[in-house]
Design brief:
The chain is mostly helical. It is built from 19 helices and no strands. 41% of the residues are buried. Its main location: membrane. It is found in: Cell membrane. It comes from Mustela putorius furo.
Length: 513
Amino acid sequence: MYTTESQNEHLEDKHTPSSTTSQILKDSNISEHEETKETVLSQTEETKPQMEKTCSCPPQGKLNKFITNGVTIFMVWCVAWSFFGTEVLPGGNLFGLLMIFYSAIIGGKLLEHIRIPSVPQLPPLIGMLLAGFTVRNIPFLSNYIRINNKWSSALRNCALTIILIQAGLGLDPQALKHLKRVCLRLAIGPCLMEACSTAVISHFIMKFPWEWGFLLGFVVGAVSPAVVVPSMLLLQENGYGIKKGIPTLLMAASSLDDIIAITGFNTCLSIVFSSDTILNNVLASFRDVLIGMLAGAVLGMFVQYFPSGDQTRRPVKRAFFILSMSLTAVLGSQRIGLHAAGGLCTLALTFVAGMNWSTEKIRVQRIIKTTWHIFQPLLFGLVGSEVSVASLKSNAIGICVATVSLALLIRISFTFVLMCFAGFNFKEKIFIALSWMPKATVQAVLGPLALETARISAPHLEPYSKDVMTVAFLAILITAPNGALIIGILGPKVLTRHDPNSISMELTEMELH
């Protein structure tokens, strides 16, 4: 009896592990099943709100954003109509401006969304330019888009003022001090060489008088900071060419290059549309330069110390002072006949004021950049709308393209020669020469200015001014996208890359002559 019970107990003990194991397996299967069930439920619970968002009755996401932007545009038009009445209806000035403004914004956004693998992003200003050109040359739309010359001139002068403000604030005193030789060489030499070569080429190919040739030369001679500066900042962030300061050099020289081109253009403009002698016009230009520089220096010293350090919202107040004083200088100087004084006053004002602002200078630049985002679509949209295909001669585009291309080849070659004595190797000289070709902002401002002046004071000179406008348009269209692509593709291949954190960015260590 004892033996049988012990055996049974032994058998029960023997089967105990297997039963326990099977129970554990069952529990684990149940727990896995429950976990799977919970996971499926959680996923369905997560996707359920997303489905509700996409299919909800008040639309969400992109559809909501699209409707919001559309209603915003419509309400802007409604408010403008409430104030100005027929000016906002088709055929009115405000209607034309709103159409060009929104068309330019759409054109810029479309170009931003066009992405080609391994190809840098094209500048949005090309889309804005083409949008204005398209609006002007669509037969149905062009009948209703009419803008007063005074309105377009005032808006372009405002855009020019903002460009000059950005150029003045972008000048780095330390960079200019340590890179002064090569920076001045790069800013002055290629601009003057392209201006002179364009004058010669246009005189023989386009049959321009010499004064109109030099005026055209200074229009196309300026490089565009709107293309060069963002591209150089991207290279600098990735460490390309920073040991020799190539991005810093090109950014600093681009502002000086614009100053020289604008000053030369104003001088040629006064010669072309004045009945006085050339000597008197040149002396008057020097007078305007002196008055503008002195007035800008005085105003710049004022803005350095007003508002004082104990006041709040100083960047906003300083930006307001700069904008209001600069607009007054540019527009007011034209009213009193000192055409070249306003631009130089703006440059001197912003450069002197920014020398004493330290870190607050960046905040002021951000505010000015915000205003540029408003005027940039208007500027390039208006420039594109000035070019009419119907009014172009059959051979005009070919001649204008030939003029721009030949002058550009001379500019690139001369830039390469100038950089031969600056401590750069062969690949770096090629890169600098090709990077010094994009044109956009200055051409968009100066190109239509001669046309507007001819319409007001000398209608018989309008054919020349239309050719200047066409050359400026084609120069932007050819050089801006190609320049951006060359900088973005060629820079990482030919420039030496260094770690920005391990290299001292002190400009005093640069071995540039």
